[in-house]
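User: What would this chain look like folded?
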Amino acid sequence: MAEQVATNATYHNNKGDIFTSFDVADFPVPGGRDEVWRFTPLRRLHGLHDGSFPATTDPNVEVSIPDSLTGQVTVETVAADDPRLGQTGAPVDRVGAQAWSAMQQATLVNIDGAVQSHEPITITVTGCGMEHTTFTALAIVAQSGCDAFVNIRYVGDGIHADNHEYVLGDNARLTVVVHENWGDEAVHLGNQRAKLGRDAVLRHNVALFGGSVVRLIPQVKFTAPGGDAELLGVYFADDGQYFEQRLLVDHAVPNCRSNVLYKGALQGDETSAKPEARTAWVGDVLIRANAQGTDTYETNRNLVLTKGARADAVPNLEIETGEIAGAGHAATVGRFDDEQLFYLLSRGIPQDQARKLIVRGFFSEVIGRIPVAHVRDQLEDQIAEELANTAL
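Assistant: Here's the prediction, encoded as structure tokens.
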């Protein structure tokens, strides 16, 4: 049996056909040499990966609906075996399956097709302390024709693992911001899976600033032609923080579009007793044999601001048909743009201010695409706060 389990957790024909399961027993305990865990500091996961985590407690999840959407957006706390859960498929790793196997309840948000509003539906997950572990799932169902905005916030400290699923009906448009603003000790591992119907549009944004270890796995699958997915992300890692993001965009049908753009900055302190600031970004795009007319591009850019920081960037593009509109990928890890810095210095701007302006401009390309002004302002303020404590 052990040999069969180990085989289950390996890759098969392509990146889109990896083993998935809702049962934690179907996955072996990961080790540092496993490909999909090779960057992750397993010793810092507080046992999420091997079952030795602290005692579980009920998660603290609150949903706030604007008054204008009353009656058009419904929220239910449902049992783990509710048949409306799991529509996007099973988790791809042991921790995601652990969250599914151990959770007692989940949150189901249903958005009526009549909704045409960017007033945010706000979902807040608050950590329950480092002596507790919480598991849950969040399902957002965007009915055909709707246009809605969901803001998911993580705050406090705790040990947390969850599964998100976004189900978009035909012609639905859903914008999601996942804002990870945990406390300094928090550990969060999450699977995030989206399924898009015909001509559906998903705008998925990740803003990652807080937590000790955060590992996210966003995945998108197109089920009918005309789908459009944009996955955007910003992250800023300090001493003692490890952020990992593993993405998969699965083009399984013709004439769909995807764009992935993630930007990160890292700052460390060689004299600090904390682990170095570190990030890992792995982006996979799969274009299957019957996905003619696909148009896709993925980009990851990283600014290493100081010594004592390390970023890994691994873009992958797997193409099984030549009949596509376009495909490409790019990734960089580097320091400041010397030409931009020279330009600002030549205009009389002091060097430390010039460097901070460059960093803020670096992130603005991503943040500027979020359609709600006060959410953009929150993220801009958070970057400014990070930079205020940085000696560049």
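The radius of gyration is 20 Å. If you want, I can go into more detail on any region.
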